[in-house]
Amino acid sequence: MKKNFTRPSLMSLVLVLLTHFVYAQTDSTEVASIYGFYSYSSSLMNASSAPELSIQGNASYTATGVQLTPASSGQFGGLFINGRTFTSVNGLHVEFEYDMKNGTPLSGTYGDGLSFFLYDGAITNPTIGSPGAGLGYAYNRAKDTYASLRKAGLSGGYLGIGLDEFGNFKSKRFQGDSRVNGIAGVTWSQATSHVSLRGAMGAAINSNGLGTGFTGYPLLVTRSTLSNIGTVGLALQNDRSYLATSNTLTSVFDLRNNAGEFRKVYLDLIPHFTTPTTTDGFDIKVDIQTTQGGTPVNVINYYHYKTSVPYTENANPQVTDFNTSDVEGAATNQTLNATVPSVLKLGFAASTGAAYQQHIIRNVKLTLPYAAVANDDVTSTCKLQPVNIPVFSNDIAYKGPISITTPPTGSNANIDYSTFSFTKSSDTDLTLYRKKVTAQGTWTYNKSTGIVTFNPSSGFTGTATMTYTIKGKTVKDSSGNIIEPYGDTAYRSVPGTITVNLKTTGCIYSVVSNRMVTQGVK
User: Fold this and answer.
1) Distance CA 211, CA 230 (A)
2) Which DSSP helix (H) or strand (E) runs through 428?
3) How confident is the model at residue 51 (pLDDT cuts 50, 70, 90)?
4) DSSP letter at 292?
5) In this structure, is the dihedral angle defined by the CA atoms of residues 409, 413, 416 and 419, taken in order, positive or negative?
6) Which of 16-20, 41-45, 391-395 has the lowest mean pLDDT?
């Protein structure tokens, strides 16, 4: 009589193979960054418990982000990411989303706008700058009649980027209640909806109003987003004059989106190399994405923000701010010390006046320029069926020297497969996680193929998610000097998310019969 053997099902074989595959994956560790930089990201949604965040003034935490001001007059609020510092030697890449909507205009224009700023990381208790046209970054001086309106600029301010809907952030003013340096005497073709950059806090000049916190912050460059015709922008030159911008926008738009989608700002500070080993400040680029998935519009095109900036300190009193005189004195030539702080912190502010609107920010990301980018992936599977996900297909790492004239190129071919990691426990966690087990199932990564496999658990229904990060590759010259740093931990991407949805239709399962088979006797 022949013996009966039960054949294993196809599903059983797959599960056995997957089990061996899973346990073949091992975690490893990476080397700490030689630059001391770690990426940062926060949705800012329901963020009141985040220890690195603090708010000032009328700002509040909401389910859709941090509301810097409500849509009412005379509001002023700020957000500081004061619990984190960022090294500056390799530059910075910042992304955030904003919304300006609702409110009431003055003479057809809403106000005032919002600012993003960088300040000296040595400051432990920063204070936002002046409200109204100052957007929380610049100072405001005033004569004695309006002494209560005097307000120093941002503590330790290094750079302020104004999304200036009303248009006054760029302008010089000398009047009883407001005295601040800036651009004067220009007939703008579009004076509103400007993206404007102001520089660092200046040195004290005298004790008659131009003291600490009340000088500097000079207007570096400004550009209207509403037009390509006429005088739409100016940039500060070495001789302290302003030259008309030559940057033509690919499309024009109002900074105020009013309704619907948040808009997204991309800010790059690229080290400005004067020799292969020395730098002089940053080349600054500002792009704004006006529709979700759309191509960002380049508004500020690599303005060179030097470590020493000649500028004109105008809006000076003839004698002193500390009296009731309205007589303006002579402007003076100054040179701003804009040495880059060794570490930086960042924040946001917004203000309203007689013209007002709501200002909200969310989804802040901070990486190094040309850090790897891990984009989200979505796929589906059926109950008990594993799925393979080629996560790198839409990701990017960079190759080539850092330069604005010949920038490095981005491609998934530049990703170092060995640097992949599932969710880390903290920004400074150096473990590379190749396997994660959750209630939904088991996630594994194959560093030879770059494939992530999700094997759902028997009780899995609904949606499973996992985050991951990646890096590029480091290249050295024949002397061992780093010429392409993209494999350093500082260039690790912010996390991308893998989403697996369980399908409820269209699934085919192996059928295993338990019917007894009678063998014949020969």
Assistant:
1) 37
2) none
3) very high
4) T
5) positive
6) 16-20
- Pairing between β-strand 431-432 and β-strand 28-29 as defined by DSSP bridges: antiparallel
Q: Which helix (H) or strand (E) holds 132?
A: none
Q: Considering only CA atoms, which of 105, 100, 125 is closest in space to residue 115? A: 100
Residues 117-149 have pLDDT tens digits of 999 999 999 999 999 999 999 999 999 999 999
Question: What pLDDT is attached to residue 20?
Answer: 40
- Contact yes or no for 289/183 (Cβ under 8 A): no
Where is pLDDT greater, at 274 or 57?
57
**Calpha distance 419→377 (Å, rounded):** 18
Which DSSP string corresponds to 327-390? Answer: -B---EEEEEE-PPPSEEEEEEEEE-SSSEEEEEEEEEEEE-TT--B---EEEEE-TT--EEE-
Peptide bond into 112 cis (omega under 30): yes
Amino acid at 239: D
Tell me if residue 289 falls in helix, strand or coil. Answer: strand
pTM reported for the whole predicted model:
0.86
Smallest CA-to-CA distance from 192 within 159, 217, 162, 235 is with: 162
pLDDT higher than 70, residue 15? no
Phi, psi of 342 (to 5 degrees): -65, -35
Question: Cα separations (Å) of 373 from 27, 32, 283, 427, 464?
Answer: 22, 19, 21, 16, 22
pLDDT at 510: 65
Residue type, 176: G
Judged by phi (left if over 0) then psi (alpha if -120 to 50, else beta), residue 230 lies in left
Mean pLDDT of 178-193: 96
Task: State the pairing for strand pair 496-502/377-381.
Answer: parallel
Pairing status of strand 409-411 against strand 474-476? unpaired
pLDDT at residue number 504? 83
Q: Are 350 and 89 in contact (CB under 8 A)?
A: no
pLDDT of residue 78: 97
Q: Which residues pair with 140 in a beta bridge?
A: 151
CA distance 484 to 269: 17
Q: Token pair for residue 377?
A: 């992936």
Query: Which of 201, 405, 198 minimizes the C-alpha distance to 305?
Result: 198
With a cut of 60, say whether residue 97 has pLDDT above it.
yes
**Tokens matching residue 267:** 């800010």
pLDDT score at 422: 97
- Residue 48 above 90 pLDDT? yes
C-alpha 480/C-alpha 75 separation (Å) is 55
> Which tokens in the block code for residue 407?
């920038």
Residue 56 to residue 140: CA distance in whole angstroms: 18
Structure token digits, residue 386: 């594993």
